[in-house]
Amino acid sequence: MSNKTNLMMCLTMVAVFSIGTFGLGKADFTFGDEEWPLAGTWFGTNSHGHTILLTIMPSGPDSDQFAASLDITHDPSFGGMFPGTIAATNMRGTYVRTGLNTYAFTVMSYGLAEPAEGEAARQVVYVQVVSGQFILTDENTFASDLYTAALYAPEQDPFGDEPPAYGCYPVSGTYTRMPVVPVCELPPPEPVEE
């Protein structure tokens, strides 16, 4: 069996497990009537064990749209499904307010291989698009059991009607707002001997 077949089987098992475990579906809960700010930097680990560092900034004053920059620690080759993949770009995207403390989002990145012979730019191996919904459960926490990552071939339009060539898989997670912390206290300097 090829690596792609193995990964697709694995992703299918993860999807079945996740649907049963996380009950993937639209969150139908609210947390009071206080609105909490979305802008800031968030961190946490998703359901696949990948560490996330996410910065969200308003697109303008009083905007319901936000720009996002996301760093994620993961194997860009997806366990060898994309041999020769050496890196993935950081994810960039958009978040849109859908209600009180609820948001829909889409972020994307490119999987990259070494440049082809005689070329300077790295080759795009796949396009990853992550989309879903989440809710701020308090001022410093957001959570989602409703988002998916889709893997498209480089020649596909990831925002068109064609399904992702390499499939998709479910993801969930809870993330915490990064606080500002005091400066670490340094020990006093050692006395200088004369």
Structure in a nutshell:
With 194 residues, the chain is mostly beta strands. It contains one helix and nine strands; from the N terminus they run αβββββββββ.
Written overview of the protein:
The chain is mainly β and 194 residues long. It has a single domain (3-28, 35-177), classed as Beta Barrel (Lipocalin), CATH 2.40.128.30. It is 10% helix and 44% strand. It has one helix and nine strands; from the N terminus they run H-E-E-E-E-E-E-E-E-E. It has one helix at residues 3-22, and strands at 40-46, 51-58, 65-72, 85-88, 91-99, 102-113, 123-138, 141-152, 168-177. An eight-stranded antiparallel beta barrel has the order 1-2-3-5-6-7-8-9. A hairpin with a 2-residue loop joins strand 5 (91-99) and strand 6. The longest helix has 20 residues, at 3-22. The radius of gyration is 20 Å and the shape is globular. Residues 1-30 have low confidence and may be disordered.
